Amino acid sequence: MTTPSSKKTAVIYARYSSDMQKASSIDGQLLLCRKVALRNNLDVIGEFVDAAKSGLTEGARDGYQRLLNGVRNQEFDVVVVEHYDRLSRDPATIQRLKQVFEFNGVELMDQKGVYATATDISIASLYNTIYKPQLAEKVRRGHDNAVANGRIPGSYAYGYRPRPGAPGERVIDENEAKIVLRIFNEYAGGRSTRTIAADLTREGVPSPGATRHKNKAGRTTWNHQCITGGRHGRGIIGNELYIGEIHWNVRSTTLNPETQKKQKRRNPAERHIIVKRPELRIVPQVLWDLAQKVRSVRAVSMFGPTGKPRRRAVSPRNTEHPLAGVLRCGVCNGHMRIAQSSRNGAPRAAARARISGAPASTPVALIWTFCSRMPPRKSK
What we know:
Blueprint: E1 9-15, H1 24-39, E2 43-50, H2 62-72, E3 78-80, H3 91-103, E4 107-109, H4 118-148, E5 160-162, E6 170-172, H5 174-188, H6 193-202, H7 208-212, H8 225-228, E7 245-248, E8 251-255, E9 262-266, E10 273-276, H9 285-303, E11 337-341, E12 347-350
Parallel strand pairs: 1-2, 1-3, 3-4
Antiparallel strand pairs: 5-6, 7-10, 8-9, 11-12
């Protein structure tokens, strides 16, 4: 909002992407943006910061979310950034942001001190499209180099703490290490992960979520999945760091262009990076081997000889079905879409109750329809 003196109000947004980078990057961005605001006679009334947060994410950036709330509430006139990619590195997202800014009467300015136009954003989006793969390769190379030198990019595993003043370095947390040993002993002794998790919750033992996400509701109890790790087995039982080994680049995340969902895939063995750090060992080798044997036996018993669950084919959520866009829910009258696939591949259409007349207690099951009567889509 413009002040009585007709001086435009502005806020600054700054971000850097990795915890392996220096926090001084934020200070440099803020200093530069303050100078830009001063040259353009802007009254800076706030600053939003995200440290060690990727530009490809939105929900995980608290500063970014507060900035968006300010834009929607029209609390300022201008957003100043060093580069547009500080807001987002995703071309579609930065285009959408510009539209949100325009809708709320908020302008965007970078270090050149010029208000962004649709053409500027289009050029920035094209540049990001070209630059993103190059940046990903540079980040990957930097992470690989850090791991080769015994450092661990990203978050720290349960049982460890970051070494102060040494990015990527880990030290053993003695209290959590005792819990890790307890989990391995009970699991190797035949107890189920659900029983172990229930006991830890009942005893009030701090969980991985409680120690790292204290401000997030629902993170104060133990979930059995954090012990076994689900499909890819990356839980506590399968973490090789507990035997003093850093296993890096074992899997990659790729985006399915049809479902727009991220999927993990195992990389070829020659791309794996394994670094031994014996000082980080928590679990004795004998206990580790016994736990892995129990895990393997249970997997074969549950999923068959391969020991791995079979993933069903997922029907793309697109508009290829002849009824797409024309179905409406009998409860809320809302538009329906193909939301899931049944075991035999038949699509399921669903809608959320969106009108005030629909009772809040209406069960979700009531708004499923055509579950088995709609024929599966034929692949082209």
